[in-house]
Amino acid sequence: MKLDADLEAQIDRWRGYVQRRQAIAAADVDELEDHLRGQIDDLLGTGLDHDEAFLVAIKRLGNLDAVSREFAREHSDRLWKQLVLVPDDADTRAPAWRELAVVLGFAVGTGIAVKVGLSWSNGEAGLARNIGLLVFPFLAGYFAWKRRLTVPVLATLLISFAALAVLLNVYPFASFGSTEVLAALHAPILLWMLVGVAYVGGRWRSDARRMDFVRFTGELAIYYTLLALGGGVLIGLTVAVLQAVGVDPGPVLAEWILPFAVPGALVVAAWLVEAKQNVVENIAPVLTRVFTPLTILMLLAVLAVLATAGGLGTVDRELLILMNAILVLVLSLLLYSISARDSLARPGFFDALQLVLVVVAIAVDAVMLTAMLTRITEFGFSPNKIAALGLNLLLLVHLLRSAWLTVGFLRGRHPFAALERWQTRYLPVYGGWALIVVAVFPLVFGFA
């Protein structure tokens, strides 16, 4: 039976909640969801409405009482307490020492790979092209172990990593040429997509799983930043003490500590997100509500600067690059805000504020596209201009559709799930564009 959009949103949210809380193995989630859907179909046939059928079906999943109890405390307005709240049981999960050992193993492996890469790299350009290949496979390896990936998915990941490595190192790039720089900038996007395949357990076609990965990306950025700040303070104090007693820690710091600590912290941060998601889930809505109005003010300031910069053809190239970075940041904030929002909540003031953010971003993007087309008309095509133009066109389509769906949500014409689905289904488009830039641009522009 085909379920309506609101009920699909509830099922997606239940599944994401269960998977993120790690109450059950990832391999069992599919089977549980199939069972849940079967229960809902049966209950709908008895005359229950969608909400009643969903809640009763959840109650019947007796082995998820612990997760349901947690969910009830956060969402009592949806009658979870009446249906599934049971007395607390002692936490019987085994100690996490085994997973910690695996995490540390991958973190050390990342550091060793980076250390070897620094020693064997063919100049700075070669290191820039390959730095992602030295780090992201280990992060994907952690999730492959965590999610117990099937052999076909593992084989796909290995072949994809290997193919990208061959492509980046066989192409005869001109040293520090435009196509080499573009390849170095876009390869991490492809690598992150592959990490996403491992994170979602190979279920990349699932909207809910892709949204989980969006949420994970935002939380990973938060944890990694916190680790970097704390590690920076610790290293700074240690260096100050050693210098005070006449010891120069510079060589050891540059040659050993940083090559292991910086990439290894990424794996550790990913583990912390997996283990402590409820901490970030509590602060994510606060962060998005703080930074959304600030970002709107920043974009308005950007528009004012562009409006007073004279002819669009005279806008500095570095300024356009910076504006691209700002738009990507705005899109990241939008995605994280959507992933952190309660998909069943009614439209509110913050949703209207996000619409303002998207509309202002569209205005900035339109001005930038005009400036880029003006520069191309005056100075001709180049790899950098085409790559930037393509990215801005992709961003414009993404933002326009997001604005349309947000307006529909605010007016009660579309469920919030429609806005979520648009975000997750459009994300692979960026991966496709990155693949074109990495694999096709060098051939088209003669590796210049």
Automatic annotation (TrEMBL):
Question: Which UniProt keyword terms apply here?
Answer: Membrane, Transmembrane, Transmembrane helix
Keyword DNA-binding included in the entry's annotation: no
> Where, by residue number, does the polypeptide cross the bilayer?
100-121, 127-145, 152-171, 183-201, 221-244, 256-274, 286-307, 319-340, 352-374, 386-407, 427-447
Q: Does the keyword Nucleotide-binding apply?
A: no
Q: What is this protein called?
A: DUF4153 domain-containing protein
Q: What is the lineage of its organism?
A: Bacteria, Bacillati, Actinomycetota, Actinomycetes, Micrococcales
